[in-house]
Design goal:
The protein is an all-beta fold and 135 residues long. The protein has a single domain, classed as Rieske Iron-sulfur Protein (3-layer Sandwich). The strands form 3 sheets. A 4-stranded antiparallel β-sheet has the order 2-3-4-9, with no helix packed on it. A 4-stranded antiparallel β-sheet has the order 5-6-7-8, with no helix packed on it. A hairpin with a 2-residue loop joins β5 and β6. The N terminus and C terminus are likely disordered.
C-alpha cells in the first residue's frame, strides 16, 4: 500500500473519497467506514499515518477487523483479528500469522489526509500478492 504524503494529498475527486475527519480516529483503535457500499477498517498509527483495509475477516467471514488489536511485527504495523487472532500487515494486507491455516491476504486501499480529512482511494484496492500496489 502506498500512503500519500499529506502535503501532496488529493482534493475530493471521483477517485479519492473523503471518508471521515481525522479527529474521528483514535490512535491504534480501528474504525469502520463504508466505501462504495463495502466496509473498510481505518487505523490511525502513532506516527500519524492512516491505513485502510477490508473490515471483513477472511477467516471468519465477520465484519470485525476494525475491532482488532493493533501492534507491530518486526517494525510492520499490524492488526490481529478479534475472532481467530490471525495477524495482518496493515501496509500490505499480508497475513503474518495464519494460526495454522492457509494465509489469506486483506485488501488495502491507499489513504491520504488533507486539511484534517481522511481520504481513501476508490481505485482497485491492492492485496499482498500485488507488487505494484494495484491488482
Amino acid at each position: 500500500m502506498t500512503l500519500i504524503d499529506p502535503q501532496t494529498s488529493p482534493a475530493p475527486t471521483a477517485e479519492w473519497m473523503p471518508v471521515c475527519a481525522l479527529t474521528a480516529l483514535e490512535v491504534e483503535r480501528g474504525r469502520a467506514a463504508l466505501l462504495d457500499g463495502e466496509q473498510i477498517a481505518l487505523f490511525l498509527l502513532p506516527d500519524g499515518r492512516v491505513h485502510a483495509v477490508q473490515n471483513l475477516d477472511p477467516y471468519s467471514g465477520a465484519q470485525v477487523l476494525s475491532r482488532g488489536i493493533v501492534g507491530t511485527r518486526q517494525g510492520a504495523p499490524t492488526v490481529a483479528s478479534p475472532m481467530y487472532k490471525q495477524v495482518f500487515d496493515l501496509r500490505t494486507g499480508a497475513c503474518l500469522d495464519a494460526g495454522g491455516k492457509e494465509p489469506r491476504a486483506l485488501r488495502v486501499w491507499p489513504t491520504a489526509v488533507r486539511d484534517g480529512v481522511v481520504f481513501v482511494c476508490r481505485a482497485q484496492p491492492s492485496s499482498a500478492g500485488s507488487r505494484s500496489g494495484r491488482t
